[in-house]
TrEMBL record:
Residues 6-203 form the ABC transporter domain. Gene3D superfamilies: P-loop containing nucleotide triphosphate hydrolases. This is ABC transporter domain-containing protein. The keyword ATP-binding applies. Pfam families: ABC_tran. The keyword ATP-binding applies. It comes from the Bacteria. It comes from Micromonospora andamanensis. Belongs to the ABC transporter superfamily. Keywords: ATP-binding, Nucleotide-binding, Transport.
């Protein structure tokens, strides 16, 4: 049985005086994929930030089902290159909590997802020593290794080749099959076709 994990009602947002989102309504159900589409600058990334709670709407409300665990893959992730993280460490971040050390199960999950996304051979490399697609696969692994109820993914596969893109979609489908929800901003019609629902934002 599916249930609502995340809803947005009449959500509006403005950066200072610049209105970006207006009266956005959205209902995200468990075990479903929602695509966010719209031209450059239409507000997809902004809406994902609001859904994730890293920014607050200037109008309307966002409701998260209590206890919902969110994983966000931002579009802009350049800041992380300043840290001397290896690929493994970067993926492990997806499993960190303040309460306990990484368990054997956490390490197994990290290893498995690195194998699935074909970055295991890059384990000891620093992020800034990777190609664009290898780096993006590492960040996708960090997001998808989380045991989340909702995955908020901002153009996750924009930099990926066809094979890698397919691997990401397979992993995502496995999460969704076990009840997780995904909201994916994308310009790729093949990717948005995977979604049951589409929210199109007008500029
Ligand atoms: N920090 C900011 N301060 C002011 N304006 C911003 C800021 N971030 C984004 N904007 C503006 O808000 C609007 C929406 O931006 P947003 O990044 O959400 O669009 P998007 O749909 O994700 O675009 P893209 O397809 O290019 O990723 C744009 O007009 C952008 O210029
Ligand atoms: Mg964007």
């Amino acid at each position: 049985m599916s249930f609502d994990v995340l809803t947005a009602e009449h959500v509006g947002f403005r950066y200072a005086d610049v209105p970006v989102l207006n009266h956005v309504n959205l209902r995200v159900e468990s075990g479903s994929v929602t695509a966010l589409t719209g031209a450059n600058g239409s507000g997809k990334s902004t809406l994902l930030h609001l859904l994730a709670g890293v920014a607050q709407p200037t109008e309307g409300t966002i409701h998260r089902r209590p206890g919902t665990r969110l994983a966000l893959l931002p579009q802009r992730t350049g800041d992380i290159d300043a840290l001397p993280l290896t690929v493994t460490e970067c993926v492990q971040i997806g499993r960190f909590t303040l309460r306990r050390r990484l368990s054997r199960e956490d390490r197994t999950s990290v290893m498995k997802i690195m194998q699935r996304l074909e970055i295991a051979h890059l384990a000891r490399r620093r992020l800034r020593e990777l190609s664009g697609g290898q780096r993006q696969r590492t960040l996708i692994a960090q997001a998808l290794v989380q045991d989340a109820d909702v995955y908020l993914l901002d153009e996750p596969t924009a930099a990926l080749d066809t094979h890698s893109r397919q691997q990401v979609h397979e992993l995502l489908a496995e999460h969704v099959a076990t009840g997780a929800a995904a909201v994916i901003a994308s310009h790729d019609p093949a990717e948005t076709a995977l979604a049951e629902h589409t929210i199109h934002l007008e500029r």
